[in-house]
């Protein structure tokens, strides 16, 4: 180790420094071992401090989580004890329960499933012999006048791109483009061309696949677009569903969206024998349970009655349930006339199905107008009765026992059924 001392190195001579050149120092092994030992101890001490710091952080996090868990458990016990003493459930804590997915939940979205079906169908169509000309767009270089003759070009590659973008929401949408390929080939190549015949074979294959999977495709289309189902029951259900959706949107109504959790309110199902909530209402609608507004409103009113029985008449929950009932009636009132017509048709359909059987029981009667007080049906029915009494005599109304029995089997009141259906048909013709 060479070092310079003195004035040349900036060190005052009074410190005893001397200038030494080419001096060698020998360091013993014991000294080097001591240096290594000190270094190792310092590294071990630093590592130990790091572990202690990490352990302290973990212990603090666990202690914090434990305190929070104990606090929640204490609050749950306190609430359960209060509910058992007063018989009133004061708060719903369903959000604390883990969300468990049901076994029978829908695995695939209907749009995805329908898109997958169309993609598989396009793959099969491409395997049809002599259809290569339709697999991709026509080249303007190879056929310069094609886009002059054909104004709406279409091909299988373009259709696949539409599938990926969920353009096809029904079989009609898919067939429209496939038929366009046939039409374009007929315009450019002629009806008797081999290209046109190959295009027609693609269309035949698609129609055969649609026919083979009719039920599945119909169900998917109805899930994607419920309004596509024009049946009376489905149209009636759509209005009821809109009523349920309106109730769900009522502020602070979450307590009635799903069934009461038995763990949160252990005594609820001992007090309430017929529970009801908005999710159950929706499931009943999807199962076509309701044939009239009175049946639907009976279950909506059950939500209010259950809350009144369990929480008390002055409870905020009961007042909110009463608000839900009023909201449902308001939505139904907006479609009063339409709903009444659907009820009549549904009752007639049910009457027809029951009278076809042997020794079938008497069909249910038509729903009575004026379910909601002040509805126009009550006035409408009175007007019909007045017209019948003025224009027809008793002998003309029932000129044969067979006609009277026919009215009875349909559940109609005497002297009102014929005019009711004439007016109903007239109203439908006017709407058409």
Biggest sheet descriptor: none
* SSE-based structural type: mainly alpha
Number of strands: 0
> How many helices does DSSP assign?
17
Shape, please?
Answer: flat
Following the backbone from N to C, one meets helices and strands in this order, namely HHHHHHHHHHHHHHHHH
- Estimate what percentage of residues fall within beta strands: under 5%
- Mean pLDDT over all positions: 76
Low-confidence stretches: 1-11, 90-97, 358-425
Estimate percent helicity. Answer: 55-70%
The span between the termini is 111 Å
Taking Cα atoms only, what radius of gyration do you get, to the nearest Å? 41 Å
Task: Write structural notes for this entry.
It is a single chain. The chain has 432 residues and is mostly helical. It contains 17 helices and no strands. Helix 8 (232-248) packs antiparallel against helix 10, helix 8 runs antiparallel to helix 12 and helix 8 (232-248) crosses helix 13. The longest helix has 58 residues, at 29-86.
What's the structural blueprint in terms of helices and strands?
Elements (H helix, E strand, L loop, with lengths): L28 H58 L23 H17 L19 H4 L6 H9 L6 H19 L4 H19 L1 H11 L7 H17 L19 H4 L6 H9 L6 H19 L4 H19 L1 H20 L20 H16 L2 H4 L3 H10 L6 H15 L1
Helix pairs in contact: 2-4, 2-6, 2-7, 5-6, 8-10, 8-12, 8-13, 11-12
